[in-house]
UniProtKB/TrEMBL annotation:
Cofactor(s) the protein requires to work: L-ascorbate
Species of provenance: Idiomarina aquatica
Keyword Glycoprotein attached: no
Pfam family name, one: 2OG-FeII_Oxy_3
Secretion signal span: none
UniProtKB keywords: Dioxygenase, Iron, Metal-binding, Oxidoreductase, Vitamin C
GO BP field: cellular response to hypoxia
Bilayer-spanning residue ranges: none
One Gene Ontology molecular-function label: ferrous iron binding
Protein name per Swiss-Prot or TrEMBL: Proline hydroxylase
InterPro entries: HIF_prolyl_hydroxylases, Oxoglu/Fe-dep_dioxygenase_dom, Pro_4_hyd_alph, Pro_4_hyd_alph_FE2OG_OXY
Domain Fe2OG dioxygenase: 96-197
Amino acid sequence: MSAIPQLDHILDSLSDKGYCIVPNFLAESLSQQLYQHAQAIPEQYWNTAAIGRATQQTVNTMVRNDRILWLSAEQAIENTYLKLMDELRTELNRQLFLGLFDYECHFAHYPKGAFYKKHLDAFKGRSNRRLTTVMYLNEDWQEQHGGQLVIYGDRGEILEQVTPERGTLVVFLSEKFVHEVLPSHRDRLSITGWFRINASISGIVDPPR
Ligand SMILES: O=C(O)CCC(=O)C(=O)O
Ligand SMILES: [Fe+2]
C-alpha cells in the first residue's frame, strides 16, 4: 500500500488523459493546518506573481494578479506537504517512468477579483516543468464564488471546470494543457507546484525559478 491516497486513480487518469482531478486527496486536518499557516503569513512576505522564468520574468497584472510565496522545507507544515508530494513523485517515476527529478511549489493567494488568464505552464524544449500540481485549501467553495480552474483541450474546447474546494488535487502535463483561473469572487488560497526533470537549458543546469 502506498502512502499516496487514490494512487491508482491518479496513475490511470494521468496515463489515459494526461491529467487527473482528485477530490479529498489531502486529509482535512492537513489542509486546514496549511490554510491557517498561509493565512497567518504577513502580507509583506507575499510576492506579486511574475510570468516567465529567471531573467525573462515580467509582472503583468493583466494576465495574472495573484500573490505567491514559495514553500520551504524549513517550515514544518510546509515540509509535510513537500514530503507528500515527493512520495507522489517517487510513485510516478516508479509506475509511469516519468524521470521526475524534483518538485517546487508556492502558495497562491487570489484576492477577491483576481484571475489568471489562459496560459501554458511550460513550453516544449524550453522548460523542465513536466507536471503541474494544484492543491486547493478553501473551505466550502460555492459555484457562485467563481475562481474555477478551466482546463482546455487541443481544439480550445473545455475539458474540465474544477471547483477549487479544499483538499482537491489537480495534476496535469504542463506542456499540454492550456488552462486559466476564472475571476475569483472571494479570497482563494492554493498551492501550485511543478514536478521537474533535470534538463539543462542554455547550458544552465536546473535553472532558478
Ligand atoms: O490555481 C489554479 O487553479 C491554477 C494556477 C495556475 O495555473 C498557475 O499558477 O500556473
Ligand atoms: Fe498555470
